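Friendly challenge for the regulars: who can give me the structure tokens for this chain first? No prize, just bragging rights.
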Amino acid sequence: MPPRRPPTRPLGTITRGTTNPNRLRRVDRWLAGPQSFRLRRAADPLVVDLGYGAAPVTAVELFARLRAVRDDVEVVGVEIDPARVAAAEPLARPGLSFRQGGFELPLDGRRPVVVRAFNVLRQYGEDEYAAYWDEVRGRLAPGGLLVDGTCDEIGRRATWAAVGADGPSSLSISLRFGAFTLPSDVAERLPKALIHRNVEGERVHAYLRALDKAWLDAAALASFGQAQRWRTMCASLKSAGWPLVDGPARWRLGEVTVAWDAVAPR
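First reply, four minutes later:
Bragging rights claimed.
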């Protein structure tokens, strides 16, 4: 996909800006874990925190976490609101900077290997998100990834879609043990591409119902801990034919990732 010509003004609208320390720890753990190969292989280890909000804490945390993967990583926090950019400037340091912009990614022609956009697209209409996905996809480095996700205010419930140059490849769900009754409690935090599709006849609805059933079927294992019950749930889904793309090492964290085709809107 050829790079797009930069627009004359930032693409997108200002978010509510709500953020909290450690809110995005679950997706950061995924980026620094099973997705770390993207950063290690990158010719230019550039990462964007798109729409970081009223405070730059998530960009600062992302920088610290990814430096454990590659010490020459560069994180750029991008915000439409110039006041938020100005407020973040005192926290800039070598490898961490802040710029005004939106989905056009004001990076002077450089292509990021990862763009994390969390709690950004949920404010847009269902008819809008795909165009913004395309805008960002067209600006990724080879093998790059857009991570479009949503979480609750303190990061206990999170989901994210992994979107590459060819489109979305997976959906991840990550839940803190003790912060849910059923896995489907995360439904209100689904990405914009799926949140309105959690209805009878849609794939994501069937997936959440399958998660709930497997979770309830594993209730006898609760005495051994919620992590053991979650791992059993995931193993049951995989045996039933759901195309899970991760394994026990991730499951024990309250995380599970499924191929996008299994949940894609009909």
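The beta strands are 46-50, 74-79, 96-100, 114-118, 145-151, 157-164, 167-175, 255-259. The two ends are 25 Å apart (CA to CA). Your move, everyone else.
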